[in-house]
Each structure stands twice: as C-alpha cells, then as structure tokens.
Amino acid sequence: MVDSDPFEVITTNIMQETAKLLELDFTPTADNIHLIDMCGPGYAIPSSEGNAAIRMMAENKDLFLDPVYTGKAFAGLVKMAREGQFKPTDNVLYLYSGGLFAIDIELD
To answer: Given this model, what pLDDT does residue 1 score?
Structure first.
C-alpha cells in the first residue's frame, strides 16, 4: 500500500465487485488480501524501490510508471516475487491503470 487508507476493506470490496462482474464462482474475502507497505518515505515522495521498478519497466518493457502509485506498487510486486511468494505455475497480473505522471523527477 502507498498510503494509510483502509486498503484491506477497499481492496476486498473491489475484488468482490470484480468477481461479480466476471461472474466467477469465487467470492474474495479479506483473507485473500495480503497488503505490504510500499509507501517508502511518504506519500508522493519517491522511494528507491519505486524508482528501481520504474527504471526496470522503462528499460525492459517501454512502460513508464509514476513514482507516487504505480512505481511503488510494481516495486511491491517485484519484492513479493523475489521473496518467493509466487509459484512458477502462478498466473500473476499487475494491473496498470494509468496514474498521474511525475516524469520530471530524477531517478536515483
């Protein structure tokens, strides 16, 4: 998570509504949500992990993430992968829904 909103509740609701829209035979619960804190030094303050994720995606996929949300969120996904939280057979989806760009920052 990248700020202090009650994301366990927000995320569970979004997942439940998405499951309904997709007519899945699965109803996500709070037990299916595993959030990690990727806020770094603070909201709207770039983090070194987020900047590394931004650089990784720009160099390898020509996809530009922003330092406020999407860079930090992708850094969390990278962290989870490096910690072995996914099996080789898992299907992992990172949903990039845009975001306000702050490209003018200098990446360390």
So the answer is: 47
The Cα-based distances of 80 to 46, 94, 105, 108 in angstroms read 19, 12, 26, 22
> For residue 32, is it within any domain?
yes
| pLDDT over 80 (residue 8) | yes
In a domain, 1, yes or no: no
In a domain, 31, yes or no: yes
With a cut of 70, say whether residue 7 has pLDDT above it. Answer: yes
**Which DSSP symbol is given to 63?**
-
* Contacts within 8 Å (CB) and 24+ apart, 101-107: 101/64, 101/66, 102/66, 102/67, 102/68, 103/64, 103/66, 105/46, 105/67, 107/46, 107/51, 107/54, 107/55
Query: 105 lies in a domain?
Result: no
Number of domains in the chain: 1
Q: Which domain holds residue 24?
A: 7-82
Taking the alpha carbons at both ends of the chain, their separation in whole angstroms is 22
